[in-house]
Amino acid sequence: MKLSAPISLCLGVVVFSTAAFQPSFSFTPSQRAPRTKLSPVVLHQEGKGSFSLANLFGESGSAGPSLRGSKNLEPHPSVRSHISPLNRLGPDEKKEVKSEPLPFHSNVKSGTLPNGLPYVILPNKSPPGRFEAHLQVFSGSADELESQQGIAHLTEHVAYMGSRKRELLFGTGSQTNAYTDFHHTVFYAICPNTTPRTNIPMLPMALDALVDVLEARVESSRLEKERAAVLSEMTMVNTIEYRVECQILSTLHRENRLAKRFPIGKESLIRSWQTDDVKSWHRTHYRPDNVLLYLVGDVDTEEAERVIAEKFGRLSAEKQGADIKIPEIKEQAKDLADAVVGGTVKAAGSWHYPPVRHDWNIAKDMDVDGKLIIPKDQLEYDINLQNSYPLDETVSFLQTEEVAPGKKIRPHIFRHELLQSFSMHLFAKRPVEPIIDLDSFRKSLARRVALAALQIRLNVGGRSDDPAFTFVEFNQLDSAREGCAVCSLDLTAEPHKWKEAICKSLSEIRKLGVHGVTMGEMERYASSLMTDAEQLAAQGDRIEHGDQLSYLMETVANGHTFMSPEQSYLMTAKALSSLTLEDVNSAAAELCSHVMSFKEGEDPVDGSVVAVACLPKGLEKDDPAYCDEDSLVKAIYEACQLEVEPEEDVVVPFTLVPEDELVKAMEENPPDWLGGQFSDGTPNTAPDTITRPFTLRRLGNGIRIGVNQNPHESQRGHLRLVAPGGRDAEKRLGFKKGSMAIGARTMQEGGAFGPWTREQVELFCVDHLLMVEITCNEESITVDFVFPTTNVGNVGFGDDVQLGITGTESVMQVVREIIVGFKWEEDALGRSKSSFRGTHESMLKNLENLSTEKIMEAMTADDERFLSIEVDEVNAITLDEAKTAVMSQMSPENLEISISGDFDVAEVLEMIYKYIGTIPADANKEYLVEEVPADVKGAVVSSVPSLPLPGKFVELELPDSDPRAVAYVSGSAPNAWGYLADGRTVSEIILEKDKRASEYDLGRRKHPLFARIALLLLSEIFNRRLFSNVRERKQLTYDANFSFTGFERLMGGWFLVTVTASKENAQKALEACKETLHNLRKTNPITPDNAESAKRVVLNRHEFSLRTTQYWTEQMSGLQEESVPLKGPLSFTDFQAVVEAITVKDLQLVLETMGLDDNELYTAIGKTVKPDGVEEPEEELVRQAPVIGMRRGGALTG
């Protein structure tokens, strides 16, 4: 199961891209029903009042004759008049606006069918020839009755996996998926406009599949399969990270039903339900008035409306209600439905929200709808589940502490043996404020400026020589899944620094609230907002369907106005032109009000501030790291009493490389262009010619250059600097273990260049919207930049704007300084070491990571290049050792720069010429180190170690209070380009085995891209087979995954199959995975359908990825590297041709180059064991299966 949405549960993406199942009919599905019987469409151009069947059908509320099978049926027990889920796009009376209303996206078309089913259509051309249809059911786990806990998620599985019409999408290049959250269940299909080869329209087919979900057959065989999958998923998701998130959400929403209605549900109930139970939930909630269809893509609006009416028009709530078989469920659902519309954020705010009320943390004079406030007297119906119920597990109802009159904190401590650091999460819940007019839009921008200023202060100023925290974030987001806006402070720290971390972070929040932002900060972040809006406007209709749809769903859900990128740009310019410092500081004070109110003498606010601290178990009370509820509350309160001083502006450089310095560099080291050189058979390129799809050259100093123009991401670019070597070079050059990786992280933590301090450089990057990430893996050090290609760092707006340099030029300056001007600092090394210590300690307490580490130890005979860096080894690295290791790789002749973006290639080449070409060829020569002689023990490098045979079984036990298990199957494999550990290639081995191959086959298999493509296809085939055998047929797991290590420079590699299962089924799941691998070679080999399906997936992924600048830089990296001899321009130009030419026999032969024999396999099972003497902790909040992800933004991200 793919972990996609915050706390949501979703099915793993199933990509159907094979011609294995072709429709047997030759007509389009839309031809099945004559147009004269289509249900008419109610368009939303006018209209008032609540959203109800009575309003749509007349006073009787009964369906018209077009709703077949619904005559003379009783009304559905859960249908109530309610606000339209279309919100601002719907027929209800528009909210009164106080200023100029925001414009609506002119291309959006919304409507409601006579049966109550609403829809939204957004034509979008990127990518062309494709569309996405998402069906949102407005019932999730929060709508479950006491006896239904977990049934929303199980029903999602049954409806999705049981859909026969979904199977018609097989072989079309479509993707389908589904997920469940607190507030909804969503099903979606991402499809091409027509089927491959036969050109049958796919919109009717996709909507047929979604209608099938609403009319789901609940078959006992499918229920048993999905019951097994869900039970396996309960184990899979139960990591310590999710248990922490479970504790956080339970505390945050203790006053309402979200604390007792997690999507995964109760295991005992899941094991007990029969088909009538699932069908009763489905028929109660999967009804036309309780769903919303989104359609975004390259579609014709009128045709789409016609097909929607044809497919969905025959559904009726009455027919669904008649199929609810359990009388007590029907009666209880009636009561819940009455309570929902009687007073919840769902009824009063947005039908997208869960049916809850919140304990708001707001100013006492703030006007809030009474239906949203929890009354002092108990409601007749316990909508917030504050009573005790038979199925409740051990719950410690939290005490709210009043630290001063009217000032309340709700604390909770969660301790666990798998935690190794301290984290605190401080929350205030506020009503969502719809953004519908210029005033509300300006306020939202002011809030974003204030939040950006605070986050940068925390990030830049908080990274001292001995930082108080290792991570900190302050934000406020509208959360449809929780039905509120959540203002959150999240931080992590070393356990003994927890008080300091609280003090530092809360002081910064109070400083912002009390003193506001500086004028320099306001100009900086307002300019960033303007640049963001300009980029989106420039992208226009090139924004991807998925991005458009996510934004559309989020905007509609929260009642905001959905604008086009161009409209958003114009309104942003209008709002910012009148934005004042007072506006920003007012927004800052409101954001920070819950923290500011704790200061003695300040007025209290309504509601409680929620504080959750998570820390290691077993600390003694006299330990500085010990924290309990009383000390947590005391630390928070005391931190809020400290006086704070206003922030002072930092002088930020306009440019990192002054013009006179660049002129001097041009004189001392005149740059020169050389032609590109390749090892894949491509002729060398000229040094003075711009070519397509990329321009490949070398500079006179040896640096390899690749430039690609990509207009798909408007005004954006991506640059990748690669220094081959990585952890392999640690061993090859005789450096201390970990010095290369720790050094790379030190660069990330540092950033002082030339005369500029780290703080100045970081703010320069902020001003120019540069994002930098420096990483080190087994093969290389990589520096990635994301940047705007327009002028940034501008000051002022409109006619008064003073343009800064472009983001592209900013990147060139930073790249130059990284190579020749970087300052190495002890405090950056300290932060780097702290990060690695935390990573290693976390690995030791993570079942999956520790199991992987153990199997790698066995397979590599403890080769340090592929293993975690232990704490003692981290501590032993000095600054000089880290510096020497990294800078030894920064010789110009060792470097390659690839850049892709929406820019003029000639202009970029000129910048590279000046900034990069003037770097001396002998730069960093003082750090060069001779390689360790080959006869020195352990010096065999540039390939993975030979696999010790026979293979081994590794068993691991990890102390943990909850039962979990994971199994692995691994063995040898070629690297990404087909090289084996002994230096032979896949092509060479196949040529030896297939002596009767034709000249055509010999030519294909000698292509440098042959092995690369074959391995990509095999990976898809393995994953599909594992899903079919281990999950679908044997019902042993929720998820089994196959992957290659994919080294490019190191010869050889491994494959790894990962399968999660219950402890009881772990061994069976492992054997099933081995069986799948064996069958693919022998008893059930690859079929033409398997190959065609995999080809479509690989080609679609490649085509989609070519629209991103990051993919281009990743693919250009290595094109001119001698250490990747088969990678060259042909890997781009011949990609599709090589994919299409691969045969089943090719794949079967490549399969034989892998170590798949039983004696070559390494297997492992990692299991948790209950710690000695462990007892259920008294302070534990809720003992139930955890939930998936908590980060806000909702399940809208898929």
UniProtKB/TrEMBL annotation:
<protein>
    <submittedName>
        <fullName>Uncharacterized protein</fullName>
    </submittedName>
</protein>
<keyword id="KW-0645">Protease</keyword>
<feature type="region of interest" description="Disordered">
    <location>
        <begin position="62"/>
        <end position="108"/>
    </location>
</feature>
<feature type="compositionally biased region" description="Basic and acidic residues">
    <location>
        <begin position="90"/>
        <end position="99"/>
    </location>
</feature>
<dbReference type="Pfam" id="PF05193">
    <property type="entry name" value="Peptidase_M16_C"/>
</dbReference>
<dbReference type="InterPro" id="IPR011765">
    <property type="entry name" value="Pept_M16_N"/>
</dbReference>
<feature type="signal peptide">
    <location>
        <begin position="1"/>
        <end position="20"/>
    </location>
</feature>
<keyword id="KW-0378">Hydrolase</keyword>
<dbReference type="InterPro" id="IPR050626">
    <property type="entry name" value="Peptidase_M16"/>
</dbReference>
<dbReference type="Pfam" id="PF00675">
    <property type="entry name" value="Peptidase_M16"/>
</dbReference>
<dbReference type="GO" id="GO:0006508">
    <property type="term" value="P:proteolysis"/>
</dbReference>
<keyword id="KW-0482">Metalloprotease</keyword>
<feature type="domain" description="Peptidase M16 C-terminal">
    <location>
        <begin position="273"/>
        <end position="330"/>
    </location>
</feature>
<comment type="similarity">
    <text>Belongs to the peptidase M16 family.</text>
</comment>
<dbReference type="InterPro" id="IPR011249">
    <property type="entry name" value="Metalloenz_LuxS/M16"/>
</dbReference>
<keyword id="KW-0732">Signal</keyword>
<dbReference type="GO" id="GO:0046872">
    <property type="term" value="F:metal ion binding"/>
</dbReference>
<dbReference type="GO" id="GO:0008237">
    <property type="term" value="F:metallopeptidase activity"/>
</dbReference>
<dbReference type="InterPro" id="IPR007863">
    <property type="entry name" value="Peptidase_M16_C"/>
</dbReference>
<keyword id="KW-0862">Zinc</keyword>
<feature type="domain" description="Peptidase M16 N-terminal">
    <location>
        <begin position="120"/>
        <end position="260"/>
    </location>
</feature>
<feature type="domain" description="Peptidase M16 C-terminal">
    <location>
        <begin position="877"/>
        <end position="1096"/>
    </location>
</feature>
